[in-house]
């Protein structure tokens, strides 16, 4: 049966790895390297820092075709996945979930009320947090970058690299950083267009 799925995937142009992404009971796609936490954001920032990583929160929802694309194409790409795993702790949030969340300002919410409070309305939305947990500000105010939606490989990966390199502290806006990296990739022959 698996061979039939792999053959079908090859016919329609999907990687066999895309078929290995599983759905959880909540209907969200799961990566075995995502972190399971108590969703205390300050604690998660400190845990990530202790591991030499940064915290990124990903908001998703059941039935989201863009979330599926992110998991099946972007997170299935070894170059993307390995960079993220090496540099970030990823915690998944359900846009309409009821799990308890503790905001950086100390407020206890559910995932869905947190998403509303922080103004996240698209899925997936990736929220990149600072290296140190700020006191008494909500996540949306503390975030160093936010990526609403699923993009192509290089936009997606370059956002992670820009945050990892603390590009948000410098003068080079993400879009200029991304354009510079794309030009380098073209010069190296690794990219035709994006």
TrEMBL record:
Keywords recorded for this protein, A-Z: Signal
Domain of life: Bacteria
TM region(s), chain numbering: none
Signal peptide residues on this chain, from the entry's feature table: 1-18
Keyword match Signal: yes
Domain Thioredoxin-like fold: 48-132
InterPro entries: SoxW (IPR041737), Thioredoxin-like_fold (IPR012336), Thioredoxin-like_sf (IPR036249)
Listed Pfam families: Thioredoxin_2
Protein's recorded name: Thioredoxin family protein
Organism encoding this protein: Hoeflea algicola
């Amino acid at each position: 049966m698996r061979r039939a799925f792999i053959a079908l995937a090859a016919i329609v142009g999907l990687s066999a790895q895309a078929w290995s992404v599983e759905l959880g009971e909540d209907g969200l796609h799961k990566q075995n390297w995502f972190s399971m936490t108590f969703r205390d954001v300050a604690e998660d920032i400190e845990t990530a820092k202790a591991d030499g990583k940064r915290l990124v929160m990903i908001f998703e929802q059941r039935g989201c075709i863009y979330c599926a694309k992110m998991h099946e194409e972007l997170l299935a790409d070894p170059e993307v996945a390995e960079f993220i795993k090496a540099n970030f702790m990823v915690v998944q949030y359900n846009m309409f979930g009821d799990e308890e969340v503790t905001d950086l300002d100390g407020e206890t919410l559910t995932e869905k009320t947190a998403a509303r409070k922080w103004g996240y309305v698209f899925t997936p939305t990736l929220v990149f947090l600072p290296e140190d947990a700020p006191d008494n500000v909500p996540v949306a105010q503390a975030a160093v970058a936010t990526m609403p939606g699923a993009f192509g490989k290089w936009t997606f990966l370059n956002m992670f690299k820009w945050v990892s390199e603390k590009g948000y502290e410098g003068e080079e806006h993400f879009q200029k950083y991304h354009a510079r990296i794309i030009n380098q990739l073209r010069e190296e022959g690794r990219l035709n267009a994006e």
